[in-house]
Amino acid sequence: MLGARGGWRALRRCASLPRAVRLRVREALGAREAAEAVRVQGWVRSVRSQKEVLFLHINDGSSLESLQVVADPSLETRDLTFGSAVEVQGKLVKSPHRMQNMELQAETIHVVGPCDIWSFPLKMKERHPLEYVRQFPHLRCRNNTLGALLRIRSEATAGIHSFFQDNGYVHIHTPIITSNDCEGAGELFQIETSREAKESAENTHFFNVPAFLTVSGQLHLEVMAGAFTHVFTFGPTFRAENSQSRRHLAEFYMVEAELSFTENLQDIMQVMEDLFKTVTSTVLSKCPRDIELFHKYIAPAQKGRLEQILKHKFMIISYSEAVEILKQAPQTFTFKPEWGCDLQTEHEKYLVKHCGEVPVFVVNYPYDLKPFYMRDNEDGPEHTVAAVDLLVPGVGELCGGSLREERLPFLESRLQRLGLTDAYQWYLDLRKFGSVPHGGFGMGFERYLQYILGVDNIKDVIPFPRFSHSCVL
Ligand code: 4AD
Ligand code: MG
């Protein structure tokens, strides 16, 4: 038998098959020394044909930068165009240009997949606006901006997992299909089987009960916090909000954490702030070039602002203070600010501006505005609950969280009034069997990306946006 290490190599040598080392573009660009036989695969970002020399730029998604290929013009073929998929083999050498560390001197160029440039919606060397590439969800990932975004998104995802794992949280896969409406806001997508499946089934409901796509993993996380103390989940959530706004999606990703033995809203806010700062610092240091693209072309002042924000504590105001600030504002709002009414986008915007364009926690909201699970502050008859929203400049609400009502009698009476006692028996059980003070929060992942990158529209920070009247692909 051939050994895994020496065997195959030895066989190749015997058969004298010249196999060049396959490198990703990022590896080739970062190589410290020249290499004789290198193979790079990717898509052509530019072709420049001169009399004596042919220049190509190859990108394979491993970095924002493309690798420069220098070739003899005789290697040019009709199929070698912008957008085509190629495999180039040759020598990796130090580049004489200061802009790039290494370049590839091609010996062979093989067009793996030609590209019909006349109908290809992306054009060479054009900086396409985000609105334009949004029309092509199947192709826009080959554009620099979306490429950078998706690499940042991937690093931020890893950063979020690391943050929680490093701090002793257990990751839980909360279900996507659920039989409850956590937020009670009636923004549920109901699940039904297809007509064919229905015809062959005896039951009208596949699950015997109505089932929905989850709006939040919180209630399932609360179950788990009752055994693991600190837990988190990070998955897709769904809301049938009939909104085409620049900060709402029908399918979005939410990071949620739940902490047992927590009596203070401050502790929850601390985790929110630490999560934000740690993940942002990681992303800034791990993807400097990709981030630079956004901070140079999309939101020029964002870099400095973020650096400042990372250095300072987030502000905290109460809901009542917020309403007072709004009432005294020199501007008139479409929705008149009034204690007991929800904060509207225009109000959030004003509050953030009033506080100096920094992240602001708003705490202790009116009891009647918030879902049944939030803890009564007992500052009057059902006056306020221990809720917190984190508002950030340009985006508005980034996180929502609260202490949960862990006291059985309080929860029982609230559920009874809402007529939800039967549906939430299991949730009441959690308060009967070793209930502890606990709380948690959820952060909208797309809104997080929007904020750190300064991207105006949420549809540009998710690979395949879903919103009302649109589910392309
Ligand atoms: O404030 P929300 O509704 O909180 C909850 O669902 C809690 N159960 C979370 C928890 O405590 N575990 O949603 C949390 C965040 C919002 O602050 C917002 O950033 C984001 O989710 N979000 C949306 N993002 C994009 N599109 C939508 N339609 C969103 N709705 C909420
Ligand atoms: Mg909310």
Structural topology:
Blueprint: H1 6-14, E1 21-22, H2 25-30, E2 35-49, E3 54-59, E4 67-71, E5 85-94, E6 102-113, H3 130-133, H4 144-166, E7 170-171, E8 177-178, H5 195-200, E9 212-213, H6 218-228, E10 230-238, E11 251-260, H7 265-286, H8 288-298, H9 302-311, E12 315-318, H10 319-327, H11 345-354, E13 360-366, E14 384-392, E15 396-403, H12 408-418, H13 425-432, E16 438-444, H14 445-453
Parallel strand pairs: 1-2, 4-6, 7-10, 12-13
Antiparallel strand pairs: 2-3, 2-5, 3-4, 5-6, 8-9, 10-11, 11-16, 13-14, 14-15, 15-16
Helix pairs in contact: 4-7, 4-8
Bound molecules: 4-amino-1,4-dioxobutan-2-aminium adenosine-5'-monophosphate (4AD) and magnesium ion.
Residues 389, 397, 400 line the site of magnesium ion.
Q: Could you explain the architecture of this structure?
A:
The protein is an alpha+beta fold and 473 residues long. It has two domains: 11-113, OB fold (Dihydrolipoamide Acetyltransferase, E2P) (Beta Barrel); 140-460, Bira Bifunctional Protein, Domain 2 (BirA Bifunctional Protein, domain 2). 32% of the residues lie in helices and 23% in strands. The protein is built from 14 helices and 16 strands. It has helices spanning 6-14, 25-30, 130-133, 144-166, 195-200, 218-228, 265-286, 288-298, 302-311, 319-327, 345-354, 408-418, 425-432, 445-453; strands spanning 21-22, 35-49, 54-59, 67-71, 85-94, 102-113, 170-171, 177-178, 212-213, 230-238, 251-260, 315-318, 360-366, 384-392, 396-403, 438-444. The strands form three sheets. The protein has an eight-stranded mixed β-sheet with strand order 7-10-11-16-15-14-13-12. It has a five-stranded mixed β-barrel with strand order 2-3-4-6-5. Helix 4 packs across helix 7 and helix 4 (144-166) packs across helix 8 (288-298). It is elongated and about 85 Å long. The relative contact order is 0.10. Mean pLDDT is 93; it is low at 1-17. The chain binds 4-amino-1,4-dioxobutan-2-aminium adenosine-5'-monophosphate and magnesium ion. Magnesium ion is lined by residues 389, 397, 400. Magnesium ion (MG) binds at residues 389, 397, 400. One of its GO terms (biological process) is asparaginyl-tRNA aminoacylation. Pfam families: tRNA-synt_2 (PF00152), tRNA_anti-codon (PF01336). Keywords: Aminoacyl-tRNA synthetase, ATP-binding, Ligase, Mitochondrion, Nucleotide-binding, Protein biosynthesis, Transit peptide. It comes from Taeniopygia guttata. InterPro entries: Aa-tRNA-synt_II (IPR004364), aa-tRNA-synth_II (IPR006195), aa-tRNA-synth_II/BPL/LPL (IPR045864), Asn-tRNA-ligase (IPR004522), Asp/Asn-tRNA-synth_IIb (IPR002312), NA-bd_OB-fold (IPR012340), NA-bd_OB_tRNA (IPR004365).
